[in-house]
Write a structure and sequence with these properties.
Layout: H1 13-16, H2 25-33, E1 39-42, H3 55-63, E2 68-75, E3 81-83, H4 95-98, H5 112-115, H6 136-146, E4 149-154, H7 163-173, H8 179-184, E5 186-190, H9 193-202, E6 207-211, H10 219-223, E7 228-230, H11 238-245, E8 256-259, H12 265-274, E9 278-281, H13 284-291
Length: 292
Amino acid sequence: MFVRSVTASTTAAAVLGAGALLLPAADRTEAATQRANPVVVAHRGASGYAPENTLAAVDAADALGIDWVENDVQRTRDGVLVVLHDTDLKRTTDVEQVFPDRAPWAVKDFTAAELAKLDAGSWFGAQFTGVRVPTLTQFLHRLERNRQKLLLEIKSPATYPGIERDIVRVLRKEGWLDRSHVRNRLVIQSFGADSVKKVHALRPDVTTGFLGNPAVADLPAYAAFTDQINPSYTTLSADYVAAVQRLKGAHGKRLRVNTWTVNDAEKAANAQALGVDGIITNYPDVVRDATS
């Protein structure tokens, strides 16, 4: 059972801030009717309803009928890829209680076995007590079971030299680099342009995304190694979306725009009217309903 609910009037405006310019309501409604429905991506799973980046959040997205799931991937001290957003463990686990003498509790300083001892769910709700930090392999298995798709973010790549090759290795081992997955079920993205370039060099067939909003003049350089430009909603404008979409990306197709993190119906409708291809959200049911 999900423990958090959301409506257009009560969603987390603090996540988005006040910087995004909204179209007038009438213009937004007219423009939205002319746009295809954007792809809805569950941010860290359906993280409005279950603890982020856990298998519970994957299943929450699946229960809502959401195909695409976004996650964040880092590496443990002993080289295991794990799914976590923050580069330290304090916010979403009980690490300070389990390992009180290990400050600053950086992910990179713990082994996979140590991470497996942590409770990654009770901070969100008592019914999630005992939920664990998943490895990337476990995460992939759950997505496969649910027949879901993955938008994988390489988190803080400068902290983990060579993580791109490690990710490719795990994806290959788990069958996620076959033709079907590569064409239909996998995108790898990062805020690090060099990291995206490395993925493209290692596996030119894989769809990649750059998180951010490069200057319009710089977009052709990004289009050489990526297929998506994925900016924050707070930076979005119709002109910028159009400038991105005028270009062809690394695979010769129109560059796509997926925006984040949109958590209420009004902003979702506005993003649709601006012409985005996808919306990344903690509340994928709210965004789906607002844009369909």
